[in-house]
TrEMBL record:
It holds the Pfam family Acetyltransf_10. Transmembrane segments: none annotated. Residues 2-165 form the N-acetyltransferase domain. GO terms for molecular function: acyltransferase activity, transferring groups other than amino-acyl groups. This is GNAT family N-acetyltransferase. It comes from the Bacteria. It comes from Sphingobacterium alkalisoli.
Length: 173
């Protein structure tokens, strides 16, 4: 049995540790080591994570039956009716991938979108990230291809959206 719970400020260290375990293996064939190190510091450093929380990102942690943290998802809701619910981050330990945990987190985010009255669930994924294929299987479609300047780097992403307007809440865990 898995558990998803909203992260509190006290959980920032757990998210930080998970990110430092997951991010390098996710991007080792896509980004330079220099960029991986930069992103870990600027997005997943302790202060950066706290700022993300203060700026409205809601982090949720996924735990296994023994209480071990397996991954996390971060959602961002803009407070107007037509904006999508955004998945800002979704990362799982490599050994948990392919075991339904990602689907569990996507179902959780879909349920959150439905409960909040959002018709669209949206995310960005690096064009070289193998998770792109996972998101397609989860019902996301590419709506844009973007190149986002980020300090001295370019984030080459797909913007993907899932239509939640005809969906009903799924039972997750």
């Amino acid at each position: 049995m898995f558990t998803i719970r909203m992260a509190a400020t006290e959980d920032v260290l757990t998210i930080h540790q998970l990110a430092h375990q997951i991010y390098p293996s996710t991007y080792k064939d896509v980004l330079s080591q220099e960029q991986i190190d930069f992103m870990l510091e600027n997005i997943y450093g302790i202060l950066a994570l706290k700022k993300s929380m203060l700026d409205g990102q809601e982090f949720y942690l996924l735990f296994d039956e023994d209480g071990g943290a397996m991954g996390f998802i971060a959602l961002l809701e803009q407070k107007n009716e037509i904006s999508p619910l955004r998945i800002e981050k979704l990362y799982l330990l490599p050994e948990t991938q392919g075991k339904g945990c990602g689907t569990l987190l996507i179902d959780f985010a879909t349920n959150e979108a439905i409960e909040r009255g959002k018709t669209i669930l949206e995310l960005n994924v690096n064009r070289g990230n193998k998770a792109y294929h996972f998101y397609l299987k989860q019902g996301f479609l590419v709506t844009q291809q973007v190149d986002i300047p980020y300090y001295k780097y370019i984030l080459d992403d797909f913007v993907m959206q899932k239509d939640c307007s005809l969906l009903t809440r799924k039972r997750t865990i």
